[in-house]
Specification:
Length: 413
Amino acid sequence: MATITINLDLPPDVTVTGYERYSHGHGFKVSYPLPSRCRCERCRHEENTQFEYKNGFQVVRDLDLWGQPSFWIHQPVYHRCSNCTHRQHLIPPFKRKDVSYTYRFEKHVLSLLIGSNEEEVGRRLGISAEMVEFIVHNQLADAQSKKIDPKRVITDVGIDELSLKKRHKLYVTILTDLTDAEHPEVLAVAEGRDEAAGRKCLEKLSLKQRQGVRTYRADMGKAFHNACHGLLPNAKAVVDRFHVAKNFNEAIDKQRKAITREYKANLSKAERKAFRSLMWEFRRNPKERTEEDKQKLEKLFEKLPRLRILHQFRVRFQEIFDTAPNRKQAYQALLPLFDEMVENFPDLGSFVVTFGTWEEEILNYFDDRQTSAAVEGINNKARVIIKRCYGLKSADSLWTRMVLDLNRAKEIA
């Protein structure tokens, strides 16, 4: 008769006493040490354990073996209190109360859920999506993931909004810990995108933690800045350079369209197609263009000289943000640029006004060149999660998925 030896990584003091084929899986009879004393959960009376054994056995799901499910089979044991006669279940050390799977099966479910969704994991393991959700709830509750450790040192945070569904007023606010820029973590998620949502996220931090925050990064929305000014008394606001560049490029593109609208009206269909390709070169960094592209763009500038001026504004603006060594020199370089912009294109004055409104926060970028790249990366991750889950309708659901896929991914894997 053929035999085979299997090395099982069992929890401490748990031993296998037998094996049997269980349906389409493997059944292992297990035993574990029982406590000599027990405290009644009803009357709190403590005494030597009075054992009672249930007729029959309980089957608990464990990790798969050779691609098939395996189960631990044990006989439930109870303690009968001599004081109040209450009978309570003595929970085995390898599972939690009122579930039919082991702790390590829960962690396995979490590892499969990273990059997937409840329905897909349920199909792979032969369990329901509701059970997967329940496992996630228990695991995150164990880790107290909704609570921020009051001893945690937080020096930099980012705050931003995200739409859960296009064309619907379903927004959430996400607070991110940027203390370690290489490994950002989600701290809180709240419904809405107003000042109240921002305050709700920030209030997850203790008073000492909020006082220890040195910088926060946000876009040019007043709601989040109002919340941060009120709750982060020692923090310096930094408006991300990419948000500034986005507003600047939108203003430049608006002028470009106004200049080229009449010119395009006289072009043939083929000429319009070639013209559209040149507009990509108009936006591209001059150092990245080929000689052929430069010649084509030069011919266009000869026909539309004002387009050349716009392009020079774009290049100069980017160079200032790339090369200015400090806020003072950046400001000295931006002032003459803004004067020329308003002189040649008065409509660009709206951007200059916006810059003036957020001047301090924008120039703070040049102190340490801190950006919101990590925040935007987390937002992109959140959008992928929303699509993968075929839509999410609440901040709690998004928070659960983001904590799992970002904060706890390394410890689960």
